[in-house]
């Protein structure tokens, strides 16, 4: 089955769909540790010795130890991870919003890699790549059969190295090679525009180090284009998360100063913390607060937040804070439910440990973990309903996922029946010509059903509410 799954070239390979970790980058030393279990450690050493001496082929000692660490951490939950040299580098690139590559946003179509858009100013942009170009080969490797993540890996590399892409351009009916020199790319995680007089749309695709500055700049552009906004749509659909301080800052842009945005709770004293809408909780560097540049009306402009099953972690923090403080109306589908905190601790110059250290709670005290944010108004992704959303994995579906900490989970058996119906509909949809598939195009009212409903909400017009969506957690269902 073909999926037209949009992906940015810099996304780290192997990331769980919709579950990029919201992280706190810090080093914390625990003051006291329980005595080590000597018998189990002796057993570990014995196994290491047996593998080293008895295995059919010689094994690398360092790799054995590295794999043992990775296995120990991976057994905890889906988001804790040991970073070796390569994965640590990829992780840091992902959160910084910078990577080395050619600079294109891609999707997959009929087994080939399709250019959604080249990043403005990137090597691919300068080389003349266009939206809808199909990449058939990367250097000497045929693309058909490669996963998107494999294609991403092959296009990324070291600065000033070259990669040759073979392009098929449909409208010109020709195939040609393009040799591109890789360089550092700065991604833009914020898009926005005035969609019609008086109403604007701002989309956050991820929470990175540069997101707050990009967000402020985009809001300034929107207000310059239309100083008298009557309503704003904040689009967090398919935003997998990112950095906690960026989420706190975006929330603070719309909330009164010093109100609670999110709280955390875990074993360490440092993990028991309340983050407020104040610069001291989101500014990493000294200097002026970028939010001070925002127009004063951003605090009061009518606001709708769009979310879906792909909205996770940091985006759930923002949606939860704005919902609890009644600052915005939340529209869409129940979010992913990734409400745990990962702390990244360096283990050396080029390795690290990403460890789950706490749970997130909305200002009213609700746990986000394995529950997510339930919209105020449930709206399908299209007029025909949710074609693909029931097939998307949520936190509660992940093996070894952490519980909410607020009572047992309860799933509605109706979900499996709806999932089977969604599978059949998705298969039918995949057999249609590409031009006829009902794939939402975020930010284009003609092709974005949920955006139209958000605008209707802002204008006080009727909203087409979902008749089929279910709420995953019965406790949430009762409260809502």
UniProtKB/TrEMBL annotation:
CDD domains to which the protein is assigned, alphabetical: cpPDZ_CPP-like, Peptidase_S41_CPP
Keywords in alphabetical order: Hydrolase, Protease, Serine protease
The GO biological-process annotations, alphabetized, read as: proteolysis; signal transduction
Where is the stretch described as Disordered?
A: 399-448
Quote a single Gene Ontology cellular component term: outer membrane-bounded periplasmic space
State any single GO MF term.
serine-type peptidase activity
Does the record's keyword annotation contain Protease? yes
Where in the numbering of this chain does the PDZ domain appear? 88-156
Task: Enumerate the InterPro entries for this protein.
Answer: ClpP/crotonase-like_dom_sf (IPR029045), CtpA/B_N (IPR055210), PDZ (IPR001478), PDZ_6 (IPR041489), PDZ_sf (IPR036034), Peptidase_S41A (IPR004447), Tail-specific_protease (IPR005151)
A Pfam family name for this chain? PDZ_6
Compositional bias ranges of the Basic and acidic residues kind? 409-448
Family the entry assigns = Belongs to the peptidase S41A family.
Protein name listed in UniProt = S41 family peptidase
């Amino acid at each position: 089955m073909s999926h037209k799954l949009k992906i940015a070239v810099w996304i780290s390979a192997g990331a769980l769909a919709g579950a990029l970790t919201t992280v706190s980058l810090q080093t914390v030393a625990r003051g006291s540790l329980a005595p080590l279990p000597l018998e189990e450690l002796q057993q570990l050493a014995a196994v290491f010795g047996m593998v080293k001496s008895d295995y059919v082929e010689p094994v690398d000692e360092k790799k054995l130890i590295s794999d043992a660490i990775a296995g120990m951490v991976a057994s905890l939950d889906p988001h804790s991870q040991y970073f070796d040299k390569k994965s640590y580098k990829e992780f840091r690139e992902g959160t910084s919003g910078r990577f080395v590559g050619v600079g294109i946003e891609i999707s997959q179509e009929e087994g080939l890699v399709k250019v959604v858009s080249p990043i403005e100013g990137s090597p691919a942009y300068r080389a003349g790549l266009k939206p809808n170009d199909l990449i058939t080969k990367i250097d000497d490797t045929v693309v058909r059969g490669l996963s998107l993540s494999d294609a991403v890996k092959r296009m990324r590399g070291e600065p000033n190295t070259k990669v040759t892409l073979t392009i098929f351009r449909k409208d010109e009916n020709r195939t040609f090679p393009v040799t591109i020199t890789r360089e550092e790319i700065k991604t833009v995680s914020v898009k926005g525009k005035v969609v019609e007089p008086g109403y604007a749309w701002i989309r956050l695709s991820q929470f990175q180090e540069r997101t707050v500055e990009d967000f402020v700049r985009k809001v300034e552009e929107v207000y310059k284009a239309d100083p008298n906004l009557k309503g704003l749509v904040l689009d967090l659909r398919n935003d997998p998360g990112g950095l906690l301080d960026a989420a706190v800052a975006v929330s603070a842009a719309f909330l009164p100063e010093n109100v609670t945005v999110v709280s955390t709770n875990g074993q360490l004293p440092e993990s028991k913390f309340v983050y407020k809408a104040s610069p001291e909780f989101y500014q990493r560097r000294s200097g002026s607060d970028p939010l001070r540049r925002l127009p004063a009306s951003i605090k009061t402009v009518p606001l709708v937040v769009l979310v879906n099953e792909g909205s996770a972690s940091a985006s759930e923090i923002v949606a939860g804070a704005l919902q609890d403080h009644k600052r915005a109306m939340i529209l869409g589908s129940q979010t992913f439910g990734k409400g745990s905190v990962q702390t990244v601790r360096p283990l050396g110059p080029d390795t690290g440990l990403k460890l789950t250290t706490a749970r997130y709670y909305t200002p009213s005290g609700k746990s986000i973990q394995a529950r997510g944010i339930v919209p105020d108004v449930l709206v399908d992704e299209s007029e025909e309903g949710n074609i693909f959303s029931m097939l998307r994995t949520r936190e509660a579906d992940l093996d070894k996922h952490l519980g909410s900490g607020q009572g047992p989970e309860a799933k509605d058996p109706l979900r499996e029946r709806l999932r089977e119906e969604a599978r059949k509909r998705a298969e039918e949809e995949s057999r249609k010509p590409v031009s006829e598939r009902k794939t939402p195009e975020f930010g284009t009212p003609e092709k974005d059903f949920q955006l139209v409903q958000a605008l209707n909400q802002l204008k006080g017009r009727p909203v087409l509410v979902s008749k089929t969506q279910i709420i995953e957690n019965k406790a949430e269902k009762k409260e809502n």
